[in-house]
């Protein structure tokens, strides 16, 4: 029953990580903001999750599982209510930040429970099944969001999730148990503050580069502060007997490889998840519901592939599925590079299916492989650290590739005319293909064949 609670709340909370991508044009119009600012509804959500994740490693080992999990749901519900009744973009963003904090707690707790409770020969399968919530739900979300937006408006997305989370709260309150061992750790306020400035500064700075340029106050200052504080944060954690977040686990080669690979994957995944609705709606001129339907086959593919990917990992290890998934991701992004104004939508849908198959093959196996290579007492730290890095990479990806599209479109308007926007998207997809190539090289040269 606990696993059912994890799946139900995981579906609801993970849905809103990408559901707003389909609603982006509607939000831009409703609040009267620019697309570059409006996309922070998605990238800001990822940024907040990246900031909160280091804290979850402490919370999981310090507070009873049930109390922590119910608190995560409660914070998420509060964020939903703020977004529903938001009168301006600022209130909307506060709600999104609270949703991200709640989701961060729920996701971290769920991963640690699964990776701790189940034996090693079942971890891949169980994480793959849980992946239906944390990987399939965010990909299915744009489809569902498109249908809801066209029928009832963008706020209906939050109403649906609110109902599911209310049911999840009641179910968790009834059946959840304290299954994780607690540790007598003191909360290091300085480490927490450092983690906020480090993770938040780096992500904010990188995200602002595409809008303001590297040589700008908006990008350079937060990036510099983030990098400097990150050095202090790492040095402090290495010197503490009971660190706020044990960064020493990054010295484990396999774990470090899984972190880097997960970051590259999230960078490419979140970029393409933002670009596809923009292609269908802004370039091709179709409605939000059509945009959602284009992503629907890919959503189904991810839902089917994720559990099987976990079973393949349990039986064969990470090498083969890592290489295959990376190669497929590269092919799909190269295909998206050739999208044009004349391309039939079914071709875009097929390419999206191929892309989502690769994502389903990679996401949970990489997480399971990475955390399985560290001491079981460090699983909470490993899960939180990996999730923090990949979430930050996701927020950078959504901002980066929209920025590339905008910059290329603006500079090529004289040469391409009405096709400047699609040209910008083509270049953006080509950059994603370069990221997928990096992932493929990692899978070939940095992972041994027998490694699980």
TrEMBL record:
One term under GO cellular component: plasma membrane
Cell compartments where the protein resides: Cell membrane
Signal peptide range in chain numbering: 1-19
Major facilitator superfamily (MFS) profile domain residues: 1-451
Keyword Lyase: no
SUPFAM superfamilies noted in UniProt: MFS general substrate transporter
Source domain of life: Bacteria
Keyword terms: Cell membrane, Membrane, Signal, Transmembrane, Transmembrane helix, Transport
Keyword presence, Transport: yes
Chief location: membrane
A Pfam family this chain is assigned to: MFS_1
Bilayer topology annotation: Multi-pass membrane protein
GO molecular function annotation: transmembrane transporter activity
UniProt xrefs under InterPro entries: EmrB-like, MFS, MFS_dom, MFS_trans_sf
TM helices/strands, residue ranges: 43-61, 68-91, 97-118, 130-151, 157-180, 187-206, 212-234, 255-280, 286-309, 321-339, 345-367, 388-407, 427-447
Record-linked NCBIfam families: efflux_EmrB
This protein's name: DHA2 family efflux MFS transporter permease subunit
């Amino acid at each position: 029953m606990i696993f059912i609670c994890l799946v139900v709340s995981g579906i609801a909370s993970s849905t809103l990580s990408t559901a707003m991508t389909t609603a982006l044009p509607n939000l831009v119009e409703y609040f009267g903001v620019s697309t570059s600012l409006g996309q922070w509804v998605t990238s800001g959500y990822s940024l907040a999750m990246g900031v909160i994740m280091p804290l979850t490693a402490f919370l999981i080992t310090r507070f009873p599982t049930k109390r922590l999990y119910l608190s995560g749901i409660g914070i998420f519900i509060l964020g939903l209510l703020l977004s529903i009744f938001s009168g301006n973009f600022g209130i909307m963003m506060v709600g999104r930040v609270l949703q991200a904090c709640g989701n961060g707690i729920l996701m971290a707790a769920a991963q640690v429970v699964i990776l701790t409770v189940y034996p090693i020969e079942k971890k891949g399968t169980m994480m793959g099944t849980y992946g239906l919530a944390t990987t399939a739900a965010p990909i299915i979300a744009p489809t569902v969001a498109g249908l809801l937006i066209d029928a009832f408006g963008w706020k209906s997305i939050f109403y649906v999730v609110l109902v599911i989370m209310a049911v999840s709260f009641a179910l968790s309150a009834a059946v959840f148990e304290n299954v994780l061992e607690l540790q007598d750790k003191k909360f290091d306020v300085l480490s927490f503050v450092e983690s906020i400035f480090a993770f938040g500064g780096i992500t904010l700075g990188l995200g602002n580069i595409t809008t303001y340029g590297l040589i700008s106050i908006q990008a350079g200052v937060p990036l510099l502060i983030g990098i400097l504080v990150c050095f202090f944060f790492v040095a402090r954690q290495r010197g503490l007997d009971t660190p706020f977040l044990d960064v020493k686990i990054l010295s484990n080669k396999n774990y470090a490889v899984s972190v880097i690979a997960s970051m590259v994957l999230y960078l490419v995944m979140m970029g393409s998840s933002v670009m596809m609705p923009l292609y269908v709606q802004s370039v091709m001129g179709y409605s939000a519901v059509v945009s959602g339907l284009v992503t629907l086959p890919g959503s189904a593919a991810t839902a089917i592939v994720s559990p099987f990917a976990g079973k393949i990992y349990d039986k064969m290890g990470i090498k083969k599925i890592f290489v295959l998934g990376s190669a497929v991701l590269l092919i799909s992004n190269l295909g998206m590079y050739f999208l044009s104004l004349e391309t039939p939508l079914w071709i875009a849908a097929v390419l999206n299916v191929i892309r989502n198959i690769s994502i389903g093959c990679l996401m949970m196996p990489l997480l399971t492989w990475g955390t399985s290579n560290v001491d079981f007492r460090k699983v909470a730290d490993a899960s939180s650290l990996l999730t923090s890095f990949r979430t930050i990479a996701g927020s950078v990806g959504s901002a980066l590739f929209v920025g590339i599209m905008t910059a290329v479109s603006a500079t090529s308007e004289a040469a391409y005319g009405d096709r400047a926007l699609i040209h910008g998207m083509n270049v953006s997809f080509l950059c994603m293909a370069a990221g997928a190539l990096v992932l493929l090289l990692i899978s070939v040269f940095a992972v041994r064949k027998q490694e699980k």
